[in-house]
Automatic annotation (TrEMBL):
Its EC number is 2.7.4.6. This is Nucleoside diphosphate kinase. It comes from Coemansia umbellata. It is an enzyme of class 2 (transferase). ATP binds at K20, F69, R97, T103, R117, N127.
Length: 156
């Protein structure tokens, strides 16, 4: 029966959510966002605060290394600690991306004002949140942050 329920609700997935440095600087915001997630029915499988070196941030965002915003992005992501959260649940990858909204906070304030980036995001770079965009990137990013053994526990 549990199997049938999970199938109708969507595939069980895991994703990496990051609360970027500007949000971590405001503990009240963090508490409110964590509460929202916990009330949603999605599961926080693991949580860890990380403070990336320049090299780690460059590796995490390697696919963007030729983009105009890359240096700015790396500088932002190394400006303070980041809260890394492994989420699991049915269709959690798209669930979290919808909750965040799209990349640009100013655009979101016009089109999707209730999403997290509309409410908290500052600029196109300092947009406060990250979410994996596919099963493959979720795996790569979760292993990057939490390691392979922890990843295997999350997806069990
Ligand atoms: N970014 C930026 N300027 C842009 C686009 C993206 O600074 O014009 C930053 C922003 O912090 C974004 C990250 O680079 O979250 C990764 O970009 P991506 O296109 O993967 O957006 P996301 O999937 O995070 O919405």
């Amino acid at each position: 029966h549990i199997h049938t329920l999970n199938q109708s609700a969507g595939a069980l997935e895991a994703t990496l959510a990051l609360l970027k440095p500007d949000i971590l600087a405001n503990p009240a915001f963090v508490d409110s966002i964590i509460n929202d997630i916990q009330n949603s029915g999605m599961k926080i499988a693991l949580r860890k605060q990380v403070f990336w070196t320049q090299g780690q941030a460059e590796q995490f965002y390697a696919e963007h290394r030729r983009r105009f915003f890359f240096d700015r992005l790396v500088k932002y992501m190394t400006s303070g600690p980041v809260e890394a959260i492994a989420l699991s649940g049915p269709n959690v990858i798209s669930w979290w991306r919808q909750k965040m909204g799209a990349t640009r906070p100013a655009q979101m304030r016009m089109t999707n004002p209730t999403c997290l980036r509309a409410r908290y995001g500052l600029t196109d770079t300092r947009n406060s949140f990250h979410g994996s965009d596919s099963v493959e990137s979720a795996k790569r990013e979760l292993v990057f942050v939490f390691g392979q053994p922890a990843y295997k526990q999350i997806i069990l």
